[in-house]
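Please check our next protein.
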Amino acid sequence: MAAGREDGRGREGVAAARERGSGRTVEGMRIVIAGGHGQIALRLERLLAARGDEVVGIIRNAEQGDDLRAAGAEPAVCDLESARVEEVAALLEGADAVVFAAGAGPGSGAARKDTVDRGAAVLVADAAERAGVRRYVVVSSMGADPHHEGDEIFDAYQRAKGEADAYVRGREALDWTILRPGMLTDDAGTGLVRLEASTGRGPVPRDDVAAVLAELLDSPATAGLTLELISGSAPVSVAVKSVAGN
C-alpha cells in the first residue's frame, strides 16, 4: 500500500539539496536528537556521524555523555520534562533537522508516559518552530491512538504517543514525518524492511529503525507522512524512495 500524505503538500525543507544520491552536501547536516541516549538514538547517532553529519543528542543525565561521544554525537544536557520552550529552542538553533526519539521507557508509570512520550514531543515541536527548524522526524509507536482505550500502562503509552502525533500533524510550520515501528528487537539489522502507511503488525530490529530514520532525514519528500515499519524485503533506501514517490 502506498503511503498517504496527510497534508497534500510535497514540502521541501532545508535538507532538500542534501539528499543522498541527488546532491547531498559534503559537510552534511546538523541534526539534534531528543532522547539521545535511547537504544535507537545511539544507533542513529553512529550512522549519522559516520556519514559526516554533525549530531547533537539531548540527554537528561550528564553521566550519559560519554556514551554519546563514543557514538560520535555531542551531548546536550536538558530535562525535557521540566524545560521551557525557549531553553530547548536554544539547543535547536542552527539545526537542519530534529529527531524525537525520547521515551519514558520500561518500568515507568502512566504519568511519565504523559510527560515524556506526549509532553516532551509537544515541547520539542514547539521549540523547533521557535528555532525555525522545519524538519521534524518523530519515532512513535504502531497502534498509537489518542483515543486508545484501557487502563494498563501500555494503553497510556499508546494514548500519549497518539496525542503527540496528532499535535505534530497540526503544526503547519513543521515538515514532519512520523515513524511507527512494530515490535522492536535487538536482532542484527538486515537492511530489509516494509515501510508503508499500513503494514500490519510485525517485528523490526532497532538497527533497521535507525537506518530508516537516517534515510528519512535525507528525504524531505517524506514530509507529511505517517509510516509504519516492520521487517520486510525492500532495501531501506528503496523503501524510503518508494513512499517518497521517487
Remarks:
- Residues 1-26 have pLDDT under 50 and may be disordered.
- The domain at 16-244 is CATH 3.40.50.720 (Rossmann fold).
- The CA atoms of residues 81 and 228 lie 27 Å apart.
